[in-house]
Amino acid sequence: MEIKAFTLDENTRLPPIAPEDLSQEWLIDQVPRWIDVDASEADALADFLAPLGIPQPIIQSCLRPSEEPELAHYENMVYIEFPLIIKNRIYDRTYVSIIVLPTTLITIHSETVSTISMLETRLSMETLFHSSEISGLLHEIIVYLLRQNYHYFLDVRTQINYLSNGIIEKPDAVELGDILKIIRLVDFFITVVEDQHYCIETFLDGNGRTSRLLSTLCLYKAGYDFKRLFTISEYYDRDRPTFYKKIQCVRENDMDMTVWLDYFITGLETQMIEVKERGEQVIRRDILTQKHNLNERQSKAIEYLLQYDRLTIQDYEVLCPEVNRRSLQRDFKIMIEKELIDSEGATNQLVYLLRV
After folding, report:
1. Model's pTM, two decimal places?
2. How many CB atoms lie within 10 A of CB 159?
3. What's the order of all strands across the beta sheet hosting 351-354?
4. Closest CA to 354 of 326, 337, 335
């Protein structure tokens, strides 16, 4: 087990200190510290944590990351289990356990994490923290870990651009496996980002909206540009209990993301199909509008019929609230004469259907 220690001094810098200088006094001397533990042996880690008064559930979580909830509150203590993407291990991630005490922050990982090593070097040499409190240190660490995601997104974006150029220049040379690999990478990165956000629960309210916004941002950065035609939140909002159930399912199944990935990809597919259908409806509406020289109201009626198949005078009045009923009825008559629509039903209960 390797231990590195740093102290946050009055100049809001983080110089390293010798691990052997640590003693029980550092728990009560009010000096902010960061202790990083590279613990490959569970017994050694348990021996290190036991004297610190850390609750047993947290110790067990540190010994077996990802088997406990990602965020736990105790008196004068917070435990965070934070997922990290590992660049050289595709579709894999590790976890950094973060224990936040009143004046001490402890990070624990069961393998050497290059991100942590780079962070230690940067923070101990050049960073001026916005606060000399432990919260300032926690803020810097979390922000740095989150930012590392985007280095991986840039790598994926490069792969997407290369693949896109290949499809344009030599489509026969592009393998289906290459495309599926990119899709899987993007899906993986998005789920990690959402998991990181739910882990830290930034706000009293709005965490779900923020995580979905981050998911969309990641899709854009990875080359999925939807031209603002939809947001994945539309799909989630249709069945909120299912959305939360799928998230919780990851935690209940030892962080196995299979169920969540299936749900997320189904939502993405559903939204893409609906965008395609809406686009086709808009194109068809524009063609009919131009071909038959329809006015703006009549164009709205055609668009409504393309989407809902049937239209009543009451529906039309909702679409055009500032227009009197006589003018709307005249619109229907004109569109019937142009053989765009038909009507059925009793005179006072007419329903109009698209004919073309």
Report:
1. 0.50
2. 17
3. 310-311, 351-354, 341-344
4. 335
pLDDT for 173 equals: 73
197, two tokens: 């956000």
Query: What residues contact residue 65 under an 8 Å CB cut-off, 6+ apart?
Result: 81, 94, 95, 97, 110
Nearest to 69 by CA among 7, 338, 78: 78
Domains of the chain are: 2-131 (3.30.460.20), 293-354 (1.10.10.10)
Question: For residue 198, what are the contacts with CB-CB under 8 A and spacing of at least 6?
Answer: 70, 207, 211, 247
Q: What angle do helix axes 176-200 and 134-169 make, rounded to 10 degrees?
A: 160
pLDDT at 331: 92
Which residue positions in the chain have pLDDT lower than 50?
67-69, 203-204
CA dist 23 and 254 (Å) reads 35
What are the distances in angstroms from CA 134 to CA 9, 72, 178, 204?
11, 18, 45, 21
Residue 33 CA to residue 148 CA, distance in Å, equals 23
123: amino acid identity, one letter? L
